[in-house]
Amino acid sequence: MTEKMTNPPSTMLTLADRARIVSEAEGSTIIGVHFLRQTPVFVLGEEALLFAPAEKRTRVAVHDGGILTSVADPLRIVTGGDDGKLVATDRDGNTEVLASDERKRWIDQVALGPDGAVAWSTGKIAHVKTGKGELREFQAASTVGGLAFFPKGFRLAVAHYNGVALWFPNAAGAKPEALEWKGSHLGVTLSPDGRFLITTMQEPTLHGWRLVDAKHMRMSGYSARVRSVSWTHDGGLLATSGSEQLILWPFDGKDGPMGKQPTMFAQSPSRCTRVACHPKQPVCAAGFADGTVLMVRLEDGALILAREADGQPVSALGWSPEGQVLAMGTEQGDARVLTL
Q1: Which of 78, 82, 81 has its CA nearest to residue 70?
Q2: Residue 21: how many CB atoms within 10 A of its CB?
Q3: Deepest of 59, 60, 230, 299, by most Cβ within 10 A of its Cβ?
Q4: Residues 6+ away with beta carbon under 8 Å from 251
Q5: Across-strand partners of 149?
Q6: Listed residue (54, 47, 145) closest to 338, CA to CA
């Protein structure tokens, strides 16, 4: 791997003292954070969402038990829980149960698609509900590990043990295309231009395919499993957690990262746990297991301290739509909002 030097701590700019504290270690792990309009919404590990505008915070109960996953678009946050429910929550805190599993199987994989479509999984079954309310199902070879819609067209990537199935929900009876690679694939993402598909694995590595010819890409060198990935605003880099620095793989050429080394920034004594790229600028926020959050300028590696280390592993990061606000959450329930 190729490492680029970053600013030493003595010259690091800090904005950590400007962050607004929403909650301090309330006990419920924050598993995600999203923005509806300009309002940061923290997804708690148990039962509720925490709406945190500047003037007043509000808890909205959405599940009867643990919340396992969340995704969002500009209009809603969709969550899956261990109560077997898929729930959408809008900007005003109104909730709608989109699906409910009769056997109350966990819903821990969710993805949002075009025209209001939503996908989720229960065991081996991947479900899709179109924007018109039509239901589709596909049975994977094993338990679904990850879901992602293609950026163009109505196609869904379904990660599972030993590979990924590429499924057209509207093509009744058509056999999905199979991308095979031995091992447990626990997450999936597609490049914004739709040319590359990448999976996170149980092992400390990523695997990928160039979709035009299914050529393999293996991205290794991590010290732990990669649990968080984020594409830069132009789609040229994939930021990843899983090591003691921020690791970025290049995808700006026709071959992606094949034959290339990643760039590493923000060397740390602690492992990177979460990453979130700025929606408009070459900047990435990186959270670490010691509680530190750094904003990294990708042109030269310059650092801004957004949250100081306090021993609480960072579990959620999110930018507002214009990139003027960064929201941060930890495993112990500490939620903060930094306005730039």
Answers
A1: 78
A2: 9
A3: 230
A4: 191, 195, 196, 235, 236, 237, 238, 257
A5: 156
A6: 54
Whether 292 contacts 270, CB under 8 Å:
yes
Cα–Cα distance measured from residue 332 to residue 289, given in angstroms and rounded to the nearest whole number: 12
Query: What letter represents residue 334's amino acid?
Result: D
Burial group, residue 46, by CB count within 10 angstroms (0-12, 13-18, 19+): middle
Domains and CATH numbers, the chain: 2-339 (2.130.10.10)
> pLDDT per residue over 255-273, tens digit each?
889 989 999 999 999 999 9
The per-residue pLDDT for range 8-46, each reduced to its tens digit, is 344 589 999 999 999 865 678 999 999 998 999 999 999
Whether the CB-CB separation of 225 and 202 falls below 8 Å is answered with yes
Q: Which three-class secondary structure state does DSSP give residue 47? A: strand
Block residue for tokens 């409910």: 100
CB-neighbour burial class of residue 72 (10 A; exposed 0-12, middle 13-18, buried 19+)? buried
Report the distance separating Cα 30 and Cα 32, nearest Å.
Answer: 6
Which residues share a beta bridge with 60?
49
Residue 80 CA: distances (Å) to CA of 45, 122, 257, 295: 11, 10, 33, 30
